[in-house]
Amino acid sequence: MEFHIISLFPKAFDSYLGESILKRAIEDKKLKVSFYNPRDFANNKWSRIDRPPYAGGPGMVIQAEPVVKAIEAAKKKIGNKKYKIIFLSPSGKQFTNEYAKKVAKTYKHIIIVSGRYEGIDARVKKVFKVEDISIGPFVLTGGELPAEIIIDVVSRQVPGILGNFGSLEESRTTSPDVYTRPEVFRYKGKNYKVPKVLLSGNRAKIELWRKKRAGK
After folding, report:
1. pTM of the entire structure?
2. What confidence tens digit (pLDDT) does each residue in 187-209 have?
3. Phi-psi region at 20: left, alpha or beta (left = phi > 0; alpha = psi -120 to 50)
4. Which of 130, 137, 138, 175 could form a disulfide with 85 if both were Cys (CB 3.0 to 4.6 A apart)?
5. What would be the CATH architecture of the domain defined by 2-166?
């Protein structure tokens, strides 16, 4: 699977993509992340891509043309393969695990458009067929964090990236509380113990305990 990220700040992804499971998936060539900076497609010598909004208002708006050209560059790299364009927006459709599963099953190439400032000129959405997606009922400074979240959640749905596909918490019964050794640890004169049922070896009782803890 390859993610094509349209972003003014591609270096913001370095830390997260350079650690743990995603780093290993990239090294194993099971996952690829490519970046397209709209500044590289600006039609002026200053690489300026933002202008004041029409009708007034605070902040600056990212111009349509450099974003369109960045998306075109991603499409050119993808070629004739099937792809999806996700346009990050606080007012978009709520991103969920179910949505991630559907996207991972249907597409091998995903273009994510990450905005900044007061947003991106809405005419980009008239040029391309996009889907407005939000990661939650709040507003962030930019689209880089939401893009990282989408990369993480969608990638988990791709067989081989987690190593053991059974590691998907959403596909099995899990408790919000987990425990490991030691069986008892002492802190400020008080003993803290692992629930007895988890030490019982009775799989049926353990599964029932997990379901109750998970509210199922």
Report:
1. 0.87
2. 999 999 999 999 999 999 998 98
3. left
4. 130
5. 3-Layer(aba) Sandwich (3.40)
